[in-house]
Amino acid sequence: MPLQYLKTxxxxxxxxxxxxxxxxxxxxxxxxLTHTWGRSATLDDVGNVQLRLGPPVGKALxxxxxxxxxxxxxxxxxxxxxxxxxxSRWVGPGCGDNSSSLAVLTAFLRDLELHxxxxxxxxxxxxxxxxxxxxxxxxxxxxxENPNIGAFVAVDGYLGLAVxxxxxxxxxxxxxxxxxxxxxxxxxxxxxxxxxxxxxALYNIPLPSYPRSTLNVGTVEGGTSVNSIPAKxxxxxxxxxLEGEALATLEHQAKSCLEAVADAHxxxxxxxRVGDRPAGDLNNTQLLxxxxxxxxGTGLEIKTTSSSTDANAAAPYGIPALALxxxxxxxxxxxxxxxxPASLERGKGLLERFVALYQRFPLE
Length: 364
Description:
Blueprint: H1 3-10, H2 20-34, E1 42-43, E2 49-53, E3 60-66, E4 80-82, E5 89-91, H3 99-110, E6 121-126, H4 136-145, E7 149-155, E8 161-166, E9 168-177, E10 181-182, H5 191-203, E11 213-222, E12 228-229, E13 232-241, H6 244-264, E14 268-277, H7 285-295, E15 303-307, E16 321-324, E17 329-330, E18 338-339, H8 343-360
Parallel strand pairs: 3-6, 3-7, 7-16, 8-15
Antiparallel strand pairs: 1-2, 2-6, 4-5, 5-18, 8-16, 9-13, 9-14, 10-12, 11-13, 17-18
Helix pairs in contact: 1-3, 2-3, 3-8, 5-6, 7-8
């Protein structure tokens, strides 16, 4: 059962940019499971765990599950069993996203028959999917290995869902700088006032009804004390769209808005792009057919959706890609996140059937 791995994985903290402890754990587990084959997992330059199986010739199917969670290192990531629910649930921060996917991938490896692989199969536990990680691990892998990859599957999300359309994302840190000073003795511009005006102006940007696009100011910070005119204030801005052209237009509007507010308030604007998740075509029509064929007879109906996942990183290379869910749960990115424990075995079965089909009907 994948559950034998889940608690250990989920209770090993892995904030974005601090995944090394969990990466070491996964590398040890995967190496233990393959040492009789003379194989071992390795860490690449950015911290991804990689395990390459199958013949050395041909383009690889990549199964990638991200290591990181949205929770800070100090968060209590204990997993508990909630018996008040029928059937019972396992509850804990990050126990689903993406610890359950890593547990399923590990159990998949445990039961894999190496001699049955006709084509290369790469298992990857990658860094930097969440937040400002900006798909660091997936981007690095694809930038280096794209000629050798036939398809990329992000093992991520809820069982029965396949993410087939990537949501493009641009993220900025906008900082307003002024001279600051004493709140009574000075009359210098306020960086926080400029920030407040900027937020209002950003939310007044008209968003298209199609393609779906969103704008969100996720965090704000600034100031030093109640009786000081703030000399610096900053925000983190998240822009999203289903189409690249619409995203570029929204990005231009947002930057122009921020620059205009800074000029009006006599503030200096520092604008830093901190995220760029590409939109585009994931070329996954045939890949989705294999997923749906794998789900036949299992009682699962595969529904498609759009989201921002590691699969986005494949778009610039034209590599067939999607994200495939392998567990049931809820409350993702919350302290009370939960999973349905029996669902992980079903997710593992779906993954096994999909890989077997891909071995027979590769997309290359």
